[in-house]
Amino acid sequence: MEIRKEVLDELIRGYEKPEDLIGETGLLKQLTKALIERAMSAELTHHLGYEKHDPAGYNSGNSRNGTSAKTVKGEFGEIEVETPRDRNGSFEPQILPKHQTRFEGFDDKILSMYARGMTTREIQGHLQEMYGVAVSPTLISDVTDAVLDEVKAWQNRPLEPIYGIVFLDALYVKMRQEGRVENRAVYVAMGMDLDGRKEVLGLWSSANEGAKFWLGVLTELKNRGVKDVLIVCVDGLKGFPQAIESVFPEARIQLCIVHLVRASLNYVNWKERKAVAADLKAIYRAPTEAQATLELNEFISRWGHKYQAIGKLWRENWDRVIPFFEFPPEVRRVLYTTNAVESLHMSLRKIIKTRGSFPSEEAALKLLYLALRNVSAKWETIQNWKQALNHFQMLWGERIQAALNR
């Protein structure tokens, strides 16, 4: 709706400085208050069916009954509005419903700041500084706690019948449990569906990362509708492959190369890390399994006397490394992706690093969910996915079709 120039000229008559427009008692606040009160008055007229002082209202059974004051918070700061009432108490304003003390969008601002890792005190300070609005810690907690129902619904939502690749990993978060702060694992399952879209399938928390707990996670995924997974990419946790095979017996299990390289470099002194990393790259970038085996032997010949543990680590896990070499470069790039789940963890760690610890598991999962919602909104279809999917169809076309038809 276009506002006439004459109206604007009348509104800003006497304007001298920005505070006259956007200050504590400026025009914008006054205009917001006047428009809201005018709209509620019009709503009441519609509700009653007659204008103020209209004789048609005599003996109608209901009438205006003054106003009540209410303070409302918004991006403009705080304003006090007069809410009209009717004698029967049946009037419910639409623009500013009963019991609502914050304008639409204000809660979203709190959630947005919270999702970026800001503490309650930082949110309070920001709202006071930017909008001149004083909010209590209880209000911020109430706004963010309202997300918990959304988290539960998300955690229990139905999933796709089949995923091309599922990455399973955990990050560690400090939480208060039974009066003491401890590191707890937050398990993350990320899937890539047949359209090449990334999707976090769920978040779970436990005192430590273990194959037994992952068995429960995988069973939950199956109960939520996942019939099959073509490839599961995991870290080197003992017993992990057996847990996967008990739930998804046909899944190809691939050890996460990123985890293996990182675990290897933990043994290396800082000066030699670059050289060791380059020689490890020659192993997992080899075109064939045979060439990779030669590169591994070469690596052990060069570094085995100094870093014997690295050669032992790769040899012990070699059966879970070599499926990688069965695939063409397009599929390998999708599998590796500098590890998709590691990229996600990096984003989540940036959010939680400002927190010393969380008062509860719920508080941690609430923040991680909100952060995840922001991060996943920017995700795009995986590059090279079409080539990877074509290869999957040639290898496992019947499995894919069977899962889709169940």
Explain what you see.
- The structure is a single chain.
- The chain is of the alpha/beta class and 406 residues long.
- It folds into three domains: 104 residues, no CATH class; 41 residues; 247 residues.
- Helices cover 50% and strands 17% of the residues.
- It is built from 18 helices and seven strands.
- A five-stranded mixed β-sheet has the order 5-4-3-6-7, with helices on both faces. A two-stranded antiparallel sheet has the order 1-2.
- A hairpin with a 5-residue loop joins strand 4 and strand 5.
- Helix 10 runs antiparallel to helix 13, helix 11 packs antiparallel against helix 12 and helix 12 runs antiparallel to helix 13.
- The longest helix is centred in the N-terminal third of the chain and has 22 residues.
- The two termini are 53 Å apart.
- The model has no long low-confidence stretch (mean pLDDT 83).
- pLDDT below 50 for ≥5 consecutive residues: which ranges? none
- C-alpha end-to-end distance: 53 Å
Biggest beta-sheet profile: 5 strands, mixed
Quaternary organization? single chain
SSE topology string: HHHEEHHHHEEEHEHEHHHHHHHHH
Number of separate domains: 3
- The total of beta strands comes to 7
Q: Order of strands across the biggest sheet?
A: 5-4-3-6-7
The whole-angstrom Rg is: 30 Å
Quickly give the structural class: alpha/beta
Broad shape: elongated
The overall average pLDDT, rounded, is: 83
- The fraction of residues in strands falls at 15-25%
Roughly what percent helix? Answer: 40-55%
Q: Quickly count the helices.
A: 18
